[in-house]
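Troubleshooting entry. Yesterday's outputs looked truncated, so today I'm pasting the complete records for two proteins to confirm everything comes through intact. If either block looks cut off, that's the bug. Protein one:
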Amino acid sequence: MGQPNPIPNIDVEKPLEKRNKQPNDKKKHSTQLNRSRDPFHPVKITVAIAVGLLFVLPIIWMILVSLKPDGFSTTNPLEWFLPPFTFSNYTNIISDTLILRWTFNSFIVALITTILTLIVTSLASFAISQMKFRFKRTIFIFFLVGLMIPGEATIIPLYETAKSLNLIDSYAGLILPMIASPLGVIILKSFFDGIPKELFESAKMDGCSNIKLFYKIALPLAKPALAAIAIFTFIGSWNNFLWPYLSILSEELYTLPVGLPVFNSSYSQAYVLPMTANAIASIPVIIVFLLFQKQIIKGISFTGLKG
């Protein structure tokens, strides 16, 4: 009989939770040591705080100016940060203007555009990546060439096409021309190319059709790419100015990028009411960013790596 294996030296007196926390404590201790060894760590922290304040200060100034009484003027910039403050500007603009309608239009247009873009780009990229048909390479080259053409160069034929289809001054006219995304097709196509072919071949042997391969295998694996495309499509649609400005005639269908300049042009010599309108338009965007900042950062890093 061989000798029994030696019993490992385990401190049974220590609770299990403390033993499990030891690696984390070591990591925290090592990071603290690295910070203490870095002579430039305080400088980096100071620069980061200064840059953060540089970006936050305009937002704070906008909110404080929007709270000033209507017609308030000053020669000293510091007076914008001092009382008096009032919320009457917000109630007046909400009741007397169409800014809430413009915000609703921007949100609906951006949301539907994002959903349709994801559907179209995912189907097109999956077909180019995994299906066999003639002229597949040529079609993909057309998508690559589409990235080289600026959007402004296609405005006139796009407007003529929308006019012939009676899409001018409608939600469909705002949404349908914007769902084509060559960049989205290229990103998703490169992602689908990276999926092992054995996975699709084994599914085909089990009787999966192309549609099932698409929505049961490809789409669940492509969630990071779809999230990145959704983020940038939504932001691009929300900030789009040129096409809504050309295709919308009635004020009720304005989006925020079109409605705000029209509103601000009526108060070219004033600060308070235009700042109040801009603050109302910025609040939804700030809330969305605070809620989805992790996804936005991941989307930026994903497109930077995969693009």
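Protein two, checking that the full record survives here as well:
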Amino acid sequence: MLSGVESELTIRVADELLMFLPAARRDRVSRVPCDGTSTLGHLVESLGVPLPEVGRMTVAGAPADPSVRPEPGADVRVEAVPRPQPVPLEPGLAAPRFVLDVHLGTLARRMRLLGLDTAYRNDMDDPALVVQANEERRVLLTQDRGLLRRRALWFGAYVRGSRPDDQLRDVLGRFAPALRPWTRCTACNGDLVAVDKREIEDDLEAGTRRSYDAYGRCTDCGQLYWRGAHGGHLERIVEEAARLVESVRGNGRAPGPAAGHSGGSWSTSTWS
């Protein structure tokens, strides 16, 4: 029977993953009980680190996947996912599609502003989110660590930051997706198309009708868009996002086209 150090293994966790460990045990090096039958994935998650946040792992210097069963006494190293992180894309797509949990509504609207296909509903429970992510091949974004530990989930990511600005920067820095600003409805995720002012005059307030000539309409929910009082604020969000994605891709770490503007510039009073 093994005892003491012989029944343990050493796990060295990358600095980027320390945030997932309990505050009282937030050390780069952890000693973990090991019986020789537990998988590497189970042992890493027992520390608090969700596997979707884990990149390369090694056991005694050799690459290892989560199903490996380390022997007691082994030395394990756990790296964070690479940034930008590749995502398998469905044919014809230039960027990943996403689904966000109920706590990330503002982030969802900002991602839609950038033209990212972003599903969001404020009444979706965890099982439904996993089903949608899997069926539609969407990356599930969440701040729920338990949700990321669901074995059925095909692809998930933890969103860092408490402010929408920080959350958006985290998502863009992680995936460096191709952007198509001003092409999606921030309310429902539908596609925006230009619409002739004469077709919608009866739907506009008099002040709006006098002040603006260019309009867009969502093909799904019918929401109208125009360049209103929020235009400057939205422009800054889009410009900062484009610079960030171009910077990440400029480091030579992400394939594909650079981010860029596409379509018109719309805003409505519904933005928040």
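Both blocks look complete. Sanity check on protein two: The longest strand covers residues 8-13.
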